[in-house]
Specification:
Distance between the termini: 50 Å
Number of helices: 1
Strand content: over 45%
Helix content: 10-25%
Radius of gyration: 17 Å
Largest sheet: 5 strands, antiparallel
Low-confidence stretches: 1-16
Mean pLDDT: 86
Number of strands: 11
Length: 137
């Protein structure tokens, strides 16, 4: 019984940190990567939670979504979560991004820092995600 439980836990842990085959590196696919940016007062990161309506696995520690996916050419709709960490805590919000993936290019997603608009009820600025297209090497 203990061996079965250990195998189930190991299988579940592996599946939560591995990208599905259709989003893994392969010839003809382009990298789409969420980027972490930082300055003197904050760190902002972009994570990819969903591609074309298909949820991506959560990390083994249940705290992070995917930072990288490899996509076939064509238009893709991503749901991304943006996090901005300050010394006093972290703000997060999600938004949708549409990318027209073209062969031979990589795509990098960056977000403006999230800021508090009002404290009661808590409201933040919406993430403004920028897509940068660069020729792959």
């Amino acid at each position: 019984m203990n061996k079965i439980l250990i195998l189930l836990i190991a299988a579940f842990g592996c599946s939560c940190s591995t990208l599905p085959e259709q989003y893994s590196p392969a010839p003809g696919r382009s990298l789409v990567e969420g980027v972490t940016t930082e300055d003197a007062t904050e760190v902002t990161r972009v994570e990819i939670g969903n591609v074309d309506g298909n949820p991506l696995p959560i990390s083994g520690d249940y705290q992070h979504l995917a930072k990288k996916v490899w996509l076939e050419p064509g238009v893709h709709k991503l749901n991304v979560t943006c996090h901005t960490s300050y010394s006093w805590g972290t703000l997060m919000d999600s938004t949708k991004v549409e990318i027209d993936v073209q062969p031979g290019y990589n795509y990098y997603l960056t977000s403006s820092p999230l800021k508090i608009v009002s404290a009661k009820p808590l409201k933040t600025t919406k993430p403004l995600v920028e897509v940068t297209k660069k020729a792959s090497q």
